[in-house]
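Ticket #4471: complex job returned nothing on first submit. Input attached below:
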Amino acid sequence: MPKFAANLSLLYTELPYLERFQAAAEAGFKAVEVLFPYELAAKETRRALLANGLELVLINAPPPNYTGAEPGYAAIPGAEARFQSDIRRVLRYADVLQPKLIHIMSGYATGPEAQDCFVRNLQWAADFAPTQQFTIEPLNPISQPGYFLSDYELAAQVLDRVSRPNVSLQYDSFHAHMIHGDAQAIWDRFCPRIVHAQIGAAPNRSEPRSGETNFERLFRAIDAAGYSGWVSAEYTPSTKRTSDSLGWMQM
Ligand SMILES: O=C(O)[C@@H](O)C(=O)CO
Ligand SMILES: [Mg+2]
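Support reply: We reran it on our side without changes. The output follows.
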């Protein structure tokens, strides 16, 4: 079975943020991810990680997203200064939190100029922080209309042009299914360049087992690919308590 991590921005939201770490550890998770840990000082999140023996897999850049601001500036021509100052801020958090990965969000944009800008900005971030591993993640246009990185082919093209060893692909079974209609086919095609995976059923983004993706088959394929990264549970539980939604881990 793959190594599962818990996304604490979507799981355990029935609990206050700092209590989610203990709940995840009690459920057996050894690693977590937090999309936007910027509302609290980094040391608060660090304390919660240490107290519960948890590794931090991933945070997102830039802050914030769910509060209604733009989901990134990386592909927006003219916003380079904003992009760079956001990355510097995220790296200050990363100094304290030591996330394995930072997911850089493209923002809303379209066309060849946006792609050129995205490539340049990713190269800048990769060279500015050469020991940090970065990811990009295609998001589906129903959940994120107008988001630049909305396709895995496009992500592969961008990564080829960026050509930096510390910028790679983040796979999300929910988005992959919503974009391309088949999460498994996208895993099979792009797995050699995937350094981080997230899972959620489609189309309703609830726990694996429901929906149109065959997760038993997907987990077998992840193992067969020799993938050694984390597979993060990033879904909205259909149950009141997240702990009641974890049956899929025993598949
Ligand atoms: O899939 C998602 O929505 C996330 O992984 C994300 O980073 C968007 O904020
Ligand atoms: Mg995701």
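The two ends are 9 Å apart (CA to CA). Closing as resolved unless it happens again.
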